[in-house]
Amino acid sequence: MTEAEVAGARERHGELDKAALLDAYRTMRTIRDFEERLHTEFATGEIPGFVHLYAGEEAIAAGFMAHLDGDDYVASTHRGHGHSIAKGCDVKGMMLEIYGKDGGICRGKGGSMHIADLDKGMLGANGIVGGGPPLVCGVGLSAKVRGTDQVAISFTGDGGANQGTVFESMNLASAWDLPVIFVIENNGYAEATAQAFSSKGIDIAKRADGFSMPGVVVDGHDFFAVHEAAGEAIRRAREGGGPSLIECKVNRYYGHFEGDAQTYRADNEVENIRKEKDCLMLFRQRVTSAGLIEESELDKIDEEVKNLIDEAVKEAKEAPEPTPDKLLTDVYVSY
Amino acid sequence: MRPIAELMFVDFMGVCFDQIYNQAAKFRYMFGGKAVTPMVIRTMYGAGIRAAAQHSQALYPIFTHIPGLKVVIPSNPYDAKGLMIAAIRDDDPVIFFENKVLYAVEGDVPEEPYTIPLGEAEIVREGEDVTIVAIGRMVSMAEQAAASLADDGIEVEIVDPRTTSPLDTDTIYESIENTGRLVVVDESNPRCSLASDIVSLVTQNCFEHLKSAPQMVTAPHTPPPFSGSLEDLYVPDPEKVANAVRQTVGQGVAS
Ligand SMILES: Cc1ncc(C[n+]2csc(CCOP(=O)(O)OP(=O)(O)O)c2C)c(N)n1
Ligand SMILES: [Mg+2]
Asked: Which mutation among A78, A182, A198 tests ligand 1's pocket best, with the greatest number of atoms within 8 A of CB?
């Protein structure tokens, strides 16, 4: 592609035409089905390790990634399936990975918490809370030095927002005008700790002031609100205007990890959110009532996604585990 | 105050490592003996629960390496309580390593407080032929290996150091004087590990008593893998321990 073509393609990313709306819906639906299916499969005991589900937060991943190209970067969290799907990671490869299979996106060596596809700009889910922001400073600096218009986005939770790494990264990104967006997914809890217990209660977005960067709060259930705020910050970053902080207020539908008894949550907490604020429901209402998309078109996507997830789970269950020799491979490039 | 902080997985120590190794560990020495830092940091270590590379490491060698820190690694419930109370009462910073697989192990623990001194190893099993020094969860691997080796007439002595800093070298050396053979079982990676440390100490200090080359049974020099089929190969198991013991008595089988 010529530079003009790349720029043109990037322009179009911002636009919410019908195809883009359908894409966004498919992304959110895929994440939702992926996660809900993992929830039921995990209960059977067949899935190894820790699994943190993103259900309820889909509008954030979809809203940001709608603006990105394959060569833009994303650094995710332990709750990384949604970011990975939205950034274009192969859904079947992800499922195989979560089942610890050789054909997995990381050859079964990483699992749910380390899903990555560097060719897609997905720098990895992360087992270390606050691990992502320093990484996007790195790729952001690289983009700047190379003179590209790539951007890098890190996702961090409300708990992770209190890590020193996040503050240090915001400072550096601001000092060096890096093309970086710090997204805080504030779902109210860090494991079982309510946000009010671990910080003073002001919006996390306000911290941007201290680093002389724009900081905004958006409703993380509302794809359109996220999409708009994301577009502005990403455009600014691409044009050399430096970093931004965007706090998305949202809720997670399941426990911190699968198996979490969630004794710290109110009785109908999740049920009420699902009824009033579900991102897929809101999106559907908005696009159909505006006459942009027919219900039947969305139903068709639902059906296709359901089939994809069915196939992914079936293939993941049947796939072979890595052979013993793989234990010793890929520690180094050469040794 | 005698603070006890629980830092979850030891893999997370990276984000607060400076406070531990440049600050807490050094206050007393740097300040000419004027400071005390009577703090305990509890942390979980070890592979075996499919938690992958950032939640499964056995990083106690890193902390054992640092002068000023004490390092405790209990292998059973009784020791865990006695060592914890000793750690709390100790005036130095102590890193208390808990193997996450051992949380499921049950054992008798007295109601009343008691202490086990830091720096005192325990002979878990007596035997004449080979000494196994095993760390934390690896004690149970050594015990299982010892039971099967006894069937073949090989009597193993198992030493559980219980703390790796300070390390009760006297008990280890005495055992070597009796057996003349050493296997160290350590769940961490092999380079600069407890295994390599203990083998080196024994080789320097008990060379004349050694009848064969000491053996190490450790995880390989790789991060912990996620997939169960690989993780099961990663952690030392009784079979690998028994094999190493057989090596030391000249009955080695190719592994
Ligand atoms: C450095 C570090 N400390 C602690 C943990 C354990 N841990 C995993 S997720 C989590 C809570 C994170 O909460 P938040 O950032 O709000 O993200 P959420 O799970 O709500 O998406 C904690 C404490 C970790 N993985 N890494
Ligand atoms: Mg949270």
From this structure: A78
A151 close to A65: Cβ distance less than 8 angstroms = no
Question: What is the ipTM score, two decimals?
Answer: 0.94
Beta bridge partners of A301: none
- Residue whose CB lies within 8 A of the most ligand 1 atoms, among A191, A198, A249, A252, for a mutation test: A191
State the pLDDT confidence band at A2, using cuts at 50, 70 and 90: low
**Domain closes at, from B56, B78, B104:** B104
Which tens digit of pLDDT belongs to each residue from A29-51?
999 999 999 999 999 999 999 99
Note whether residue B195 is domain-resident.
yes
Summarize pLDDT for B5-35 with one digit per residue, the tens. Answer: 999 999 999 999 999 999 999 999 999 999 9
Test B230 with A327 for CB contact under 8 angstroms. yes
Domain-embedded: residue B62: yes
Would you state the torsion angle of the CA atoms of residues A35, A41, A43, A49, taken in this order, to the nearest 10 degrees? -80
- Residue A301: per-residue pLDDT: 98
Q: CA A218 to CA A284: how far, in whole Å?
A: 19
Residue B25: domain span: 4-104
Strands (E), chain B: 4-9, 40-45, 70-72, 94-99, 122-125, 130-134, 156-160, 163-165, 182-185, 215-217
> What class, spelled out in words, does domain A16-267+290-319 have in CATH?
alpha beta
* Reported confidence tier of residue A12, pLDDT bands at 50, 70, 90: low
